[in-house]
Write a structure and sequence with these properties.
4-stranded antiparallel beta sheet, 11 strands, 5% helix, 5-stranded antiparallel beta sheet, mainly beta, 1 helix
């Protein structure tokens, strides 16, 4: 029925029914503080819910297929959602609450063509091998080191390069 249903864990009494998804809900996760829920659906969206009011706080619609899994991660005072989708992507989203609503920002994503980790902070990450750390830095992740003001760059210059295609 495309809803998320809440129950009182102590009494078993039915609670709120969260409506808004347009297809089956596949994955549901509570926030670490227990005040919100995130749900992933066959409608290719993730919805963020307030569990007291039942209000939908935000909708992430950046998927090309079903959202199969949603995980909530808290690091310090920052909140993140990590989603896995049938479009063969894993994405991390940062949640920011301002005075009126929640803003959702894509931090990194895998996809069919490669890994995009622009501006993802990997400083202090445990279990990340040096090879994977180097790969993530190459793809734009921030390891907490300050960049120098010099003009030196590891990027290749492709401005003069032409490619030939044959069909």
């Amino acid at each position: 029925d495309n809803t998320v249903r809440l129950w009182d864990a102590n009494s078993g009494a039915p609670g709120l029914t969260l409506t808004g998804h347009t297809d089956s809900v596949i994955s549901v996760v509570y926030s670490p503080g227990g005040t919100q829920i995130a749900s992933g659906s066959h409608d290719a969206t993730v919805r963020l819910w307030d569990i007291v009011s039942g209000e939908c706080l935000s909708v992430i619609q950046e998927f090309m297929d079903v959202v199969l899994s949603v995980v909530w991660k808290a690091t310090g005072n920052r909140q993140y959602l990590v989603s896995g989708s049938g479009d063969r992507s894993v994405r991390q989203w940062e949640l920011e609450k301002d005075a009126e609503d929640y803003k959702v920002k894509l931090c990194w994503s895998t996809g069919h063509e490669g890994l995009n980790v622009g501006d993802a902070l990997i400083e202090g990450t445990e279990g990340l091998s040096e090879v994977n750390r180097a790969l993530m830095k190459q793809r734009g992740a921030n390891d907490g080191t300050l960049l120098s003001d010099s003009k030196e760059s590891d990027e290749e210059d492709f401005s003069e390069e032409e490619e030939e295609y044959s069909f």
